[in-house]
Amino acid sequence: MENPLLLFPQLNISASKDKPYYKVMKTEIKEEPHKTSKPGAKQKRNRLSLLLQKPEFHEGNHLGKPGNLTKAASVSPEEAVKWGESFDKLLSEKAGLDAFTKFLKTEFSEENIEFWIACEDYKKSKSAHELLPKAKIIFETFIQKDAPKEVNLDFHTKEITSQSMGQPLRSTFDVAQSTVYRLMEQDSYPRFLRSAPYLSLLQGRAPARAPLRRRSRSFTVSDFQGVRPDRTMW
User: Fold this and answer.
1) In Å, how far from its chain's centre is CA 222?
2) H or E element, residue 61
3) Residue 184 gets which letter from DSSP?
4) Geometric angle at alpha carbon 133, from 130 and 137, rounded to 5°
5) Which residues, given as ranges, of the chain have pLDDT below 70?
6) Are 112 and 184 in contact (CB under 8 A)?
7) Do 196 and 89 meet the contact criterion of CB atoms below 8 Å apart?
8) Residue range 77-203, CATH number
9) Which DSSP state fits 74?
10) Any idea what the Cα angle at residue 217 is, between residues 213 and 181, rounded to 5°?
11) pLDDT the model gives residue 220
């Protein structure tokens, strides 16, 4: 039997022409997975979270390393009593801020104190050119819709904060920070004073480990409107 390639020489020519074509296709298939894809929303949020944690952003950050939260065990009962005098007194002392932050973590609402700390750091910016990048990070991390650590703010507060983002000032987050401060003072702070770890500090014992609780509903400003003040305290 004669060789079919001799009878149909075009078959051999076609095969030789197709061979480079398959090589090209094979190369393209191999290279396809290596194309760089654009970062998704999740990657963007992760980068923001990491950037927020950089030391240069949190210069003077009261939280320090996570291990520092356990230092509240060395607080004297006299110091702990002062924390119950006012919410401002609690946050003004590092040990008090650490203890309150640890408590908020058990309620899964630590974004409130993290936002407050970020605002305090923001107002300490040494130059105007630092304001824009810091403001952008704070806004995208805590305030904008679906932010990774979105705090509970009313529409009006979000709106006035958003409008000032084009040319941020040191006072850009003052309204939002005051709102979150007031919500913590009226909602989380009373529960902290009733918590087992705080009561243990008052008695001079190492604070008991607080049980994790489901995330509590964050109150809004409207929740406190219409509440009559207690005239007996005046």
Assistant:
1) 24
2) none
3) I
4) 130
5) 1-73, 205-234
6) yes
7) no
8) 1.10.167.10
9) G
10) 100
11) 47
Quote the pLDDT of residue 114.
98
Question: Which residues lie below 8 Å from residue 195, measured CB to CB, with a gap of 6+?
Answer: 103, 210
* pLDDT tens by residue, 89-117: 999 999 999 999 999 999 999 999 999 99
What are the φ/ψ torsions at residue 84 (nearest 5 degrees)?
Answer: -80, -10
Cβ within 8 Å of residue 5, ≥6 positions away: 11, 12
Most distant CA pair in the chain: distance in Å?
Answer: 117
Q: What pLDDT is attached to residue 57?
A: 45
- CA torsion 132-134-135-141 (nearest 10°) is 140
Q: Are 96 and 83 in contact (CB under 8 A)?
A: yes
Q: Quote the tokens at residue 161.
A: 């904060």
- Residue 148 backbone dihedrals phi, psi, to 5 degrees: -60, -30
pTM > 0.85: yes or no = no
Rounded to whole angstroms, the Cα distance separating 140 from 145 reads: 8
